[in-house]
Design brief:
With 755 residues, the protein is of the alpha+beta class. Helix content is 13%, strand content 32%. The longest helix is centred in the first third of the chain and has 18 residues, at 118-135. The protein is globular, with a radius of gyration of 26 Å.
């Protein structure tokens, strides 16, 4: 409970030193090992999310067994002397599919997720009741380890609806009884939904100015205990982007400073684990799917190995044990290699389609009662004596288009691809659109993320200078569910070495067996494969994609058989070479992309000569949001911010977030925003591209390349024309504000800037 300036446990002051772990991301046989590693660091608490969609796969069907045995995980924490902070959502984010919300909620088209929607709140109430039946008896007041329970999660980044948050609070309180409740948010938005009877905690990352992060809370509640409920130790990886790392020194310094001031914390993540199967989510604006590994550059690696970060953190925490002795570090789990092996069987996808269903109009996969996997849409084309343009509105998330069985092209949602050219074809030619669904968006308003084709498919033909557009109808739809049973029931045939190496890439399920003499952790290498999902002995290991940065999948020893093991790979593209091997170390930082990560061509420059700025001036030094008022609204679609210099006198420009304010004083939605130009972006050593300005994450930022002189400029297409009254700017959160803009010019135009 909250005391004066501190938490109280059994009436005594208590500093929370929490390690964030997620039981669904760790093989159950390894749960206790990971808990013990956290204990040995010097932590006293485990912080964990409860993933609604993992526990309720269908309405009213609950699963708290095996890998989902929440109560057992809690009992293991208590057995090892660890308290628990429970975070039962209903929304959790966590870079997890749909932020933990079940996909089947989307079958109700008018549902308002995370709002005061009667159906949504009804389902929340039913779920929280089930969670409470599992663990409400394990709260500290009943002699259990659960000391606090969270209400919702970072709601200030979603909206401002206190009545909704209050209803979730009432639901949690009703089912969990007399337990300390808290809510977490960022220092910039926690007051939007802060409830008077809940503890308020802050979330921020390594390197942050800690005093500044708590300044507003201390002003409003000077006697409140202070806690960083998510101190981000690293960051998550996205397909097609560089592997993320964060300096150990910044993490150590932040924790040392907080503990020296009596501030509690939870280290997110202390051990990240793995997004098994299809559980990895995606971020927005735009669409940025997360990789399978949730290593997070955490002190404990994805496979449970201690890292240099671990040992440095343990040394620091040894000074804050409050009279207790630091536990012994448990022995590392064994690691092995698996000799290279080839796949011997294939079930070509187009030879193994399930029974189709007729559908005049096209629909997303949820309308066909499908939550995960891939979906194939098939129709016949009219006579097309000349090339045409196919427009898919929209393919969520990776579509391949086939004409009479031949691949014509692909549409990648990450890149905003919606059109491709079809060659001339005869009447009755078969059009197939194979769409693989990746993780649903897990953060922001875009979490209502339907899969498959979400609207329609159009064909445009030039007819004597006039474009004729038709909406394609009369589809046959094939649902390709992502389950082991679905893949294994296919009809396999021998895969010869010649067939695998003849240059053809065949979508389908590939099967092999490999032998293990002594089961141990290893990392299966998929560098020669295309894109898809992997199962070993029926266990879903996760997604693969040749673009990287991740090229291996973690294969726990506890899921292996001594002797023969089966592996199935559903590859929607087809492998270049159907082989694999087990490595001792993961390959997490091998990016293989054709499309440049920059928002400018090599010879492209921005020409601002003759342009009149709508505002010139200087930003104040220091942390926190700043706003530039334009005096009177200006009209435009394209916004350019030009940084003339920096407060620190260095040549870099860095900016964490940017908002544009309309004539009514409201922030514009950033969902349709795209970066049209940035003169410099640091993408070789990290992911500091200009789209970080509107990625909804205050701890990520755009950075120009060191050594590139001012001025620096970024141009954003707002997606439509607006009347704009102001701009809001957030510099980096470190106390010395690297690259913070001093003098600026802001331009707004209805037409594109010259480049």
């Amino acid at each position: 409970m909250a005391g004066k300036g501190t938490f109280l446990l059994n009436g005594q002051p208590f500093v929370v030193k929490a390690a964030e772990l997620h039981y669904p991301r760790i093989p159950k046989p390894y749960w206790e090992h990971r808990i013990q590693l956290c204990k040995a660091l010097g932590m006293n608490t485990i912080c964990l999310y409860v993933f609604w969609n993992a526990h309720e796969p269908q309405p009213g069907v609950y699963d708290f067994t095996g890998q989902n045995d929440l109560a057992e995980f809690c009992r293991l924490c208590q057995k090892n002397g660890m308290y628990i902070i429970l975070r039962p959502g209903p929304y959790v984010c966590a870079e997890w599919e749909m932020g933990g919300l079940p996909w089947w909620l989307l079958k109700k088209k008018d549902i308002r997720l995370r709002e005061d929607d009667p159906y949504f709140l009804e389902r929340v109430d039913l779920f929280e009741k089930e969670v409470a039946q599992q663990v409400a008896g394990l709260t500290v007041r009943h002699g259990g380890p659960i000391i606090m329970v969270q209400v919702e999660n970072e709601y200030g980044s979603y909206g401002e609806i206190k009545p909704y948050v209050a209803k979730v609070r009432d639901i949690v309180r009703q089912h969990f009884g007399d337990v300390t409740l808290f809510q977490c948010d960022w220092s910039s938005n926690f007051t939007k939904n802060g409830l008077d009877d809940l503890i308020w905690t802050m979330n921020f990352g390594t390197g942050a100015n800690i005093d500044q992060q708590f300044a507003r809370l201390k002003e409003l509640r000077p006697d409140s205990p202070l806690m960083c409920s998510e101190f981000w130790s690293g960051w998550f990886d996205k397909w097609g982007a560089n592997h993320e790392t964060r300096p150990a020194a910044d993490m150590i310094a932040g924790i040392d400073e907080m503990l020296s001031k009596g501030i509690s914390f939870s280290l997110y993540m202390t051990h990240g684990g793995t997004n098994w199967g299809h559980w990895a989510g995606a971020n927005s604006p735009g669409f940025a799917p997360d990789v399978t590994s949730y290593d997070y550059d955490a002190p404990i690696s994805e496979s449970g190995q201690t890292t240099p970060k671990y040992w440095e953190l343990r040394k620091t925490l040894s000074r804050y044990m409050y009279g207790e002795k630091q536990a012994k570090v448990p022995s590392a789990l064994p690691v092995t290699t698996v000799p290279a092996f080839r796949f011997t069987e294939v079930a070509p996808l187009f030879d193994n389609l399930p029974e189709g269903r007729k559908s005049r109009d096209i629909h997303p996969m949820e309308d066909y009662d499908q939550g995960f996997g891939s979906i194939l849409y098939r129709t016949s084309l009219p006579d097309l004596p000349q090339p045409s343009v196919l427009t898919v509105k929209e393919a969520h998330d990776y579509a391949q288009v086939f004409l009479d069985g031949q691949l014509v092209g692909k549409l990648d949602r990450r890149n905003g691809e919606k059109q491709l050219r079809l060659p001339a074809c005869r009447k009755g030619a078969r059009l197939d659109i194979l769409v693989e669904a990746m993780g649903r968006i897990n953060f922001g308003r875009a979490i209502k993320d339907y899969k498959g084709i979400t609207d329609k498919v159009e064909l445009a033909v030039d007819n004597g200078g006039h474009t004729f557009v038709c909406d394609l109808k009369n589809w046959e739809v094939f649902n390709l569910h992502d389950t082991y049973d679905f893949y294994r029931q296919m009809q396999f045939r021998p895969l010869t070495t010649a067939a695998a190496a003849d240059g053809q890439r065949t979508p389908g399920v590939y099967r092999a067996t490999f032998r293990v003499n002594r089961p141990a952790d290893t990392f299966l290498n998929f560098e020669t494969w295309g894109k898809g999902l992997v199962y070993v002995n029926g266990h879903a290991l996760g997604r693969i994609w040749e673009i990287g940065p991740q090229q291996t999948l973690y294969m726990p020893g506890c899921w292996q058989n001594k002797g023969e093991n089966e592996i199935l790979v559903f590859d929607v593209v087809g492998p270049k070479d159907a082989r694999s091997e087990g490595l001792r170390q993961p390959l997490l930082d091998q990016l293989q992309v054709q499309r440049p990560l920059l928002h400018r061509e090599a010879d492209e420059t921005l020409d601002l000569s003759g342009e009149q700025p709508v505002s010139t001036g200087s930003f104040a030094p220091g942390n926190g949001w700043q706003e530039v008022q334009f005096g009177s609204p200006v009209t435009g679609r394209y916004l350019c911010l030009e940084a003339l210099n920096a407060h620190d006198g260095q040549d870099r420009t860095c900016m964490a977030e940017l908002y544009v304010i309309d004539e009514f004083g409201e922030r514009l939605s950033r969902e349709p925003w795209t970066v049209k130009y940035a003169d410099s972006e640091e993408v070789k050593q990290g992911n500091r591209s200009a789209d970080k300005l509107f990625d909804l994450q205050e701890s990520t930022y755009w950075s120009t390349v060191k050594g590139t002189p001012h001025p620096h400029a970024v141009v954003i297409d707002l997606g439509d024309t607006y009347h704009i009254s102001a701009l809001q700017y957030l510099p980096r959160m470190e106390s010395h504000v690297p690259g913070g803009i001093k003098d600026y010019r802001i331009y707004v135009k209805e037409t594109p800037f010259k480049q």
